[in-house]
TrEMBL record:
Name assigned to this protein: Class I SAM-dependent methyltransferase
Matches recorded under Gene3D superfamilies: Vaccinia Virus protein VP39
Cross-referenced InterPro entries: SAM-dependent_MTases_sf
A Pfam family of this chain: Methyltransf_24
Length: 260
């Protein structure tokens, strides 16, 4: 009888141990599945967030395009891609209308040149010196042709300045430009060149080289401020020139603005 009882207890313990092991395995499997589900939901939330941001950005782009269409250009300019986006286009137009700069210098000609010139024309500013600089005659010519088609060519001073090496920065920058700016006091400096891919921190020399030409109260705008290198440039400018207030906007390609 005792032997039978011991056998029964042994069998019961074996069953309990087996069930315990099976429950542990089921618990581990369940936790794994729950973790997989949680990760999947995390990915879905991330994708929904990105989609929401994309939809909002597209809606803002559309609003900006409608705003810029009110400039009533005879020949519309290209926006996006290698050109400025509608965020910067609207930003520049609003700044011109609100601040009424007397001297504007653009490093890198293009759609922005036409938009700025048209905004100046609409608000009736006829004594503004608007200078557009490009290192490539091809692109300067294209910008100039768009301006001509919109009746704005004569409102802009077009400067072709091939890139040359500046030893103090070990970088290529606009050759001969500084000599052509003597006597100028720049209220608005818009920087969209030289191109970033040609060298690291390609646009850094702009502020240290042009600072002596800037008006006491001025605005410096840098395009493509969403890129890591441009953000490093802005941080360096801010550290070296604490008198400037620095603002950043992530919209579109990213915009950095330094004001004094």
């Amino acid at each position: 009888m005792l032997i039978i009882l011991l056998i029964a207890v042994g069998l019961l313990l074996a069953i309990i141990v087996g069930l315990s092991l099976k429950l542990r395995q089921l618990s581990w499997t369940l936790n794994t599945k729950l973790n997989d589900i949680d990760r999947a939901f995390g990915q879905i939330r991330k994708q929904l967030g990105a989609l929401s941001t994309s939809i909002e950005s597209s809606a803002n782009e559309t609003q900006n395009a409608v705003y810029l269409s009110q400039l009533d250009l005879t020949m519309p300019v290209f926006m996006g891609g290698w050109s400025i986006d509608t965020f910067l286009g609207k930003f520049l137009v609003q700044h011109v209308v609100e601040s009424r700069p007397k001297t504007i210098l653009e490093l890198g000609s293009g759609s922005s040149t036409v938009l700025i010139a048209r905004a100046l024309e609409i608000v009736g500013i006829h004594d503004c010196t608007h200078i557009a600089v490009d290192h490539e005659p091809k692109y300067l010519g294209i910008s100039r042709e768009y301006a001509r088609l919109n009746g704005l060519e004569d409102r802009v001073t077009w400067l072709e300045c091939p890139l040359r090496h500046y030893d103090e920065f070990d970088k290529l920058w606009y050759g001969g430009l500084l000599d052509r700016l003597e006597g100028k006091k720049i209220d608005l400096l818009a920087i969209d060149g030289p191109p970033g891919p040609i060298q690291r921190h390609s646009r850094y020399p702009a502020l240290p080289l042009l600072k002596r030409f800037l008006a006491e109260h001025c605005t410096v705008i840098l395009d493509d401020a969403g890129r890591d290198e441009e953000q490093e440039i802005v941080q360096r400018w801010g550290n070296e020139n604490p008198e400037f207030k620095v603002d950043l906007w992530p919209n579109g390609h990213g915009i950095a603005m330094l004001t004094r």
